[in-house]
Design a protein that fits this description.
377 residues, alpha/beta, Four Helix Bundle (Hemerythrin (Met), subunit A), Rossmann fold, 8-stranded mixed sheet, 13 helices, 53% helix, binds guanosine-5'-diphosphate
């Protein structure tokens, strides 16, 4: 009898332990309360923040069997993306050419040209400059046929977008240290995607890369970045959820120096309520990183579909960090390519890359002539 009781007790203990284990495994660990608060604030601030998107089935960077991909080379992607740019911006070009094709370029025609440019987010100042310049040329050069008018428009547009700006990614470090690229911008603009895509561009170029997941507020951001890295065999440094972004950036650069890596790409958090908060955090990330190696590029990511809102973001970030280049994402989702001109004017720095789709290699280096030619067809 005693033996029977002991057996039953032992069975209860074993079974109970097993159940407890299953429950523990099934439960997701909750982050600390301050992190929960931060996540909630983010959800409120960006209620429609899209889920991280990747083309493959890998799960949050935890896969052990990711096949290393070979990213598309610059030449291959340019042909494909040029066609996509033409598709998205074609209606703007057609609108401009339709006005210039008229036999009589009267005041109403010039006004219409102005309206077309304004509707494409070119901005008031640049629009006035362009129309004035074109109008003068038409008068002075006696341009009276549509082909010459089109050629003059092309030249003026190229001049407006700018051919003398250095649009190369500054990713080369000095004194044997890696180049350090900080990627900043508001959440949802495509920041993490851009870091992942830049890693692919650099890897396709034969460069070694380390990623720093300094967006520690959004847990998914680090997973997303790690997955991007794994796809091309690049390591990602990440910290504790809700941890200090500056220390993650520091460690990423430290690791890049120790391993002799060519470029360290740092994704930063865009969840910031006030300019003071933004200033504190980005300023700290930059200062801390620069204890080890100079930051060679600060790229601001702007969603081209957000129009005026994007310009406001540019202004705020421009005041907070020394932005050296712009990445304009989602240009495939808008015909308002004029934002290229407006945002460059706002910040006084060049657009260096444009995003033209949701695919892994849908990031193209920006070129003024190519852009205008895609516009005018
Ligand atoms: P983050 O919060 O700024 O890091 O933004 P994510 O990198 O998570 O991107 C937000 C969403 O924008 C994702 O669904 C991306 O696939 C999408 N996205 C990024 N760049 C582009 C682009 O150039 N075109 C399109 N159509 N979608 C893009």
């Amino acid at each position: 009898m005693t033996l029977l009781l002991i057996c039953i007790a032992a069975a209860v203990v074993v079974l109970g332990g097993g159940i407890a284990l299953i429950v523990a495994r099934g439960r997701r660990e909750l982050p600390p309360p301050d992190v929960l608060e931060a996540i909630t604030e983010e959800e409120i601030e960006h209620p429609e923040h899209p889920e991280p998107h990747l083309e493959d089935e890998t799960d949050g960077g935890s896969t052990a069997t990711t096949t290393i991909e070979r990213p598309e080379t610059a030449q291959g992607r340019l042909v494909r993306l040029r066609a996509r740019l033409a598709r998205s911006q074609g209606s703007l070009g057609k609108g401009l050419l339709a006005v210039l094709g008229r036999a009589d370029l009267d005041d109403a025609a010039w006004e219409e040209l102005e309206d077309t440019l304004l509707a494409a987010d070119v901005g008031v100042g640049p629009t006035t400059d362009l129309v004035d310049a074109l109008r003068t040329r038409v008068r002075v050069e006696g341009i009276d046929d549509p082909e010459r008018a089109k050629a003059a428009l092309r030249e003026e547009l190229v001049a407006l977008v700018g051919t003398d700006l250095d649009r190369t990614l500054r990713a080369t470090g000095t004194d044997g240290k890696p180049g350090v690229v900080l990627v900043v911008g508001v959440n949802g603009t495509g920041k993490t995607t851009t870091v992942g895509r830049l890693a692919r561009v650099l890897v396709a170029d034969g460069k070694s890369v380390v990623l720093g997941a300094a967006d520690t507020f959004r847990a998914a951001a680090a997973d997303q970045l790690q997955t991007w890295g794994e796809r091309v065999g690049v390591d990602t440094l990440r910290g504790a959820e809700g941890g200090d972004p500056a220390s993650v950036a520091y460690e990423a650069v430290q690791s890049g120096i120790a391993s002799g890596t060519d470029v360290v790409l740092v994704d930063t958090a865009g969840r910031l309520h006030t300019k003071a908060g933004l200033m504190d955090e980005l300023g700290k990330v930059k200062r801390v990183v620069e204890k080890q190696a100079p930051v060679t590029e600060v790229l601001l990511v702007i969603d081209a579909t957000t129009g005026q809102n994007g310009l406001t973001q540019a202004r705020v970030f421009g005041e907070v960090v020394d932005v050296t280049g712009i990445v304009l994402t989602k240009l495939d989702g808008t015909a308002k390519g004029g934002i290229v001109v407006a945002v460059q004017r706002e910040l006084g720095v060049p657009v260096k890359f444009v995003g033209l789709g949701e695919g892994a290699d849908d990031l193209a280096p920006f070129d003024a002539e190519e852009f205008v030619d895609a516009l005018l067809g």
